[in-house]
Amino acid sequence: MVQKLTTLAETPSQTAGPYVHIGLMPTYAGNAGSFPQEIGASPVTGKVNGQMIDIVGSVFDGTGWVLRDALIESWQCDGGGRFPGEEGADPNVSGHCRFAVDEATGEFRLTTVKPGSYVGRGGVRSAPHISLWIVARGINTGLNTRIYFEDEDNSGDPLLSRIEQRTRVETLIAKKVADGKYRFDIRLQGDHETVFLDL
Amino acid sequence: MSDLGPLIPRNRAVHPAPYAEDYKTSVTRSPNLPLLSMESTPSEETGPVFGAELIGELDNNLILNWSKGLAPAVGERILVHGRVLDENCRPVPNALIEIWQANAGGRYRHVKDTYFAPLDPNFGGCGRTLTDESGYYEFLTIRPGAYPWPNRANDWRPMHIHFSIYGQSFGQRLVTQMYFEGDPLIAHCPIAATVRDRSHLDRLVAPLDLSKSRPLDFLAYKFDIVLRGRRQTMFENKLEGM
What ipTM did this prediction achieve? Predict the structure, then answer.
């Protein structure tokens, strides 16, 4: 016998299921008025320092079919690379957004401030990115990924540098389609499968 | 900001297999390729802070919140309560818990749910709350019904409540489902079975808790939740609160 470890195991995940929107985005689900104020309605709450951008995309399954029931959350720093709560952070950036893929078209749209780069533990600089968490029926544990930008300097980013198959790096990079407009598609499985994260 | 240390790496063995052939939708929605693992960064170690002003007075009372307190929902009245802790056994205060569920007949208030069981005009099926300083939370609700779902020819979901938990960082984000002690359908459910180890599935089953039951009013079920913790060591970061 050995001494008892007093650590706990994380609670297992279960799928968010097909009705996740009634819980997390009730107005979107047609149940407006469930709560006085909804969580994650917008990642910005007023005029921000930095560039406002639109990111549009879809989520595809392994057959190439577009999901129409996925829910996504995003988390990011402000235009200067500071997270909400940090000293000097932009008071009009909440950093958190919840959005759904459209039930008819399967397209999502995230309107936010373009994040800055920041220096993390060990003095390593991360390229500007937005973190995503994707849940839906059939996804048993929420999937984490990141949006980087093709018009930023992504060289030296500690996460992108770890991707062995360099052709897969592009799955994390939003394509610029116009000034302030980007396209970012997520592929859950199969050809050009998005790099999902465990960190 | 002082460094509270990286998140303890997720033990994927406690979580469901992404691909579970008996849960058919997972077959085309599960990544084939391995996840990219690395130490957490500020993007995972920070997260939104939710203020108490966001939460309405009836938000954690699903019996009354849909009717704005005018008329109670139909069903077996229950209190669902518990604590949110991290892997280091520390309470997680101010965690946002959101729940959604079917009504007593097993029907969700959702346009895609077309089950025969009728909607209850006084039940919306969602609620939310913040944990207190000791990580404690409570919901008053009705026990959801079991219901059939299109998967294999005769699949039924056990009674369950969906939970979404937001701790103090984006990397702790978790959704799960709470089941009820004694429900014979748990053993037949392909979604419950996605959790590979029965001892971990058991941690999703809330026991009846008569100590919190209110006589002549409601029964209680206890559901504790564990989120990822942080790795604090003297060799790599400043210890706080340990």
Answer: 0.97
